[in-house]
């Protein structure tokens, strides 16, 4: 669902507090469920699943057609009318996905596309609904937004709000539940139709009455996550139980943390501090990000992938732009843009320069064997180059800079957009 929000943000220019990466196959599966639901009264999606996959999958075709019948080259400029067509495609996909979830799974955490039924992998936080709050506003689904908002308000009024006792991932709850709640809050309180500056005054956007319930829910949920930061390094536990008594069993403390998971909390937690006036949230997240940023290799200047949160020692020698590390870089940059801390900008510039030096390949086509045994060095040898002549960024050894994985992971796809956000070009 958030993939649609990204497309809309690009063409419609509202900002969000986070960036999330979702695969198009999930969207296609959601359309299958929407088609399944049509037998129960919902509208059948206009675009067949196979057409959605053919249009969306990278590499399927060098050019893709928009609804307007025009082409958009992968390395060219998108004209305004084509951007509008892409926006319409994004809206269609969101409507199909949300309709399927709403009919078949709401208010459960997720829709399982293999069974077209709901599942509660987060104990019933209504994760997909919370994650979609901002997109419901962008897509002008005021009735659905109001329904989810009422659900949030009911959960806030429970004896122990949002404490379901389930074991959840701190990073995922932050970027999805808190991200959705706080983005919706920001969009409502900063809307030109709202009276800004009086926190206790209900605000209305069209037919939506807002009484701060999203910010209140974010605070309740975050307070349940706070015990995760009770570690010697300040690097949070990756998993925690949503319970008032704390983190739960001691086995959670033996779980290592990844750089991205521990270092990608600042935007949401700092904004919550701004909304509530409680500076603890920003302090916790800022300390965790700093703990990762300051523990880099003396050889390459790069962070590792997985770290022991008790000793601060890296447990894996590999690093890259993708899974396990990706959003660490993103949150350094966006943290600076949101908070204005020069230290975050310096940290981003330094870590980005080191990543560009060691991860970007030049000209040699490295075979899997050479790469896996460390005989290829991405900083001074040839490697993979895209069809547009842009070097790929590859996984390397933190301690030596040699290529450790001759591939490009899907989660590294955010890198060019991050560089564009920073006003940079070139290496993607």
What does this structure look like?
The protein is globular and about 55 Å long. Helix content is 45%, strand content 8%. It has 16 helices and 13 strands. Residues 1-75, 194-202 and 362-383 have low confidence and may be disordered. Helix 2 (24-38) packs antiparallel against helix 3 (49-56), helix 8 runs antiparallel to helix 9 and helix 11 packs antiparallel against helix 12. Strands 11-12-13 form a 3-stranded antiparallel beta sheet. It has a two-stranded antiparallel ribbon with strand order 1-2. With 428 residues, the chain is mainly alpha-helical. A hairpin with a 2-residue loop joins strand 6 (203-205) and strand 7.
* Total beta strands: 13
Name the average pLDDT. 77
Residue windows where pLDDT falls under 50 for at least 5 positions: 1-75, 194-202, 362-383
Number of helices: 16
β-sheet strand percentage: 5-15%
**Element string (H = helix, E = strand):** HHHEEHEEHHHEHEEHEEHHHEEHHHEEH
Q: How is the main sheet built?
A: 3 strands, antiparallel
Task: Give the termini separation.
Answer: 25 Å
Strands in their spatial order, largest beta sheet: 11-12-13
Structural class: mainly alpha
Global outline: globular
Radius of gyration: 22 Å
Q: How much helicity do the residues have? A: 40-55%
């Amino acid at each position: 669902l958030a993939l649609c929000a990204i497309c809309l943000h690009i063409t419609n220019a509202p900002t969000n507090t986070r960036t999330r990466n979702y695969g198009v196959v999930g969207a296609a599966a959601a359309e299958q469920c929407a088609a399944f639901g049509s037998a129960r009264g919902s509208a059948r999606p206009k675009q067949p699943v196979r057409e959605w996959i053919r249009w969306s999958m990278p590499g399927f075709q060098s050019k893709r057609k928009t609804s307007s019948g025009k082409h958009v080259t992968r390395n060219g400029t998108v004209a305004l009318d084509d951007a509008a067509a892409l926006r319409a495609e994004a809206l269609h996909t969101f409507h199909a996905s949300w309709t399927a979830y709403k009919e078949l799974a709401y208010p459960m955490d997720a829709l399982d596309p293999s069974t077209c039924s709901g599942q509660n992998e987060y104990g019933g936080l209504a994760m997909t609904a919370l994650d979609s709050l901002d997109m419901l506003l962008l897509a002008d689904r005021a009735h659905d937004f109001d329904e989810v908002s009422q659900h949030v308000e009911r959960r806030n009024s429970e004896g122990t709000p949002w404490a379901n006792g389930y074991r959840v991932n701190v990073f995922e709850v932050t970027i999805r539940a808190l991200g959705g709640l706080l983005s919706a809050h920001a969009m409502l309180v900063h809307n030109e139709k709202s009276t800004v500056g009086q926190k206790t005054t209900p605000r209305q956007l069209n037919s939506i009455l807002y009484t701060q319930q999203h910010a209140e829910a974010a605070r309740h949920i975050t307070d349940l996550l706070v015990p995760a930061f009770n570690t010697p390094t300040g690097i949070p536990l990756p998993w925690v139980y949503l319970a008032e008594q704390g983190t739960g069993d001691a086995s959670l403390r033996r779980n290592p943390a990844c750089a991205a998971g521990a270092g990608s909390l600042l935007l949401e937690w700092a904004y919550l501090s701004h909304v509530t006036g409680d500076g603890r949230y920003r302090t916790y997240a800022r300390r965790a990000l700093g703990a990762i940023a300051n523990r880099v290799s003396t050889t390459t200047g790069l962070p590792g992938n997985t770290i022991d949160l008790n000793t601060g020692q890296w447990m894996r020698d590999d690093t890259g732009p993708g899974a396990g590390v990706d959003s660490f870089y993103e949150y350094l940059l966006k943290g600076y843009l949101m908070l204005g801390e020069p230290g975050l900008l310096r940290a981003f510039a330094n870590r980005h320069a080191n990543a560009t030096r060691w991860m970007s390949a030049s000209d040699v086509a490295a075979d899997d064997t050479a790469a896996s045994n460390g005989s290829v060095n991405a900083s001074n040898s040839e490697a993979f180059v895209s069809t547009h002549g842009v070097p790929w960024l590859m996984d390397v050894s933190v301690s030596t800079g040699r290529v450790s994985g001759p591939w490009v992971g899907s989660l590294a796809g955010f890198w060019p957009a991050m560089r564009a956000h920073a006003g940079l070009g070139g290496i993607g």
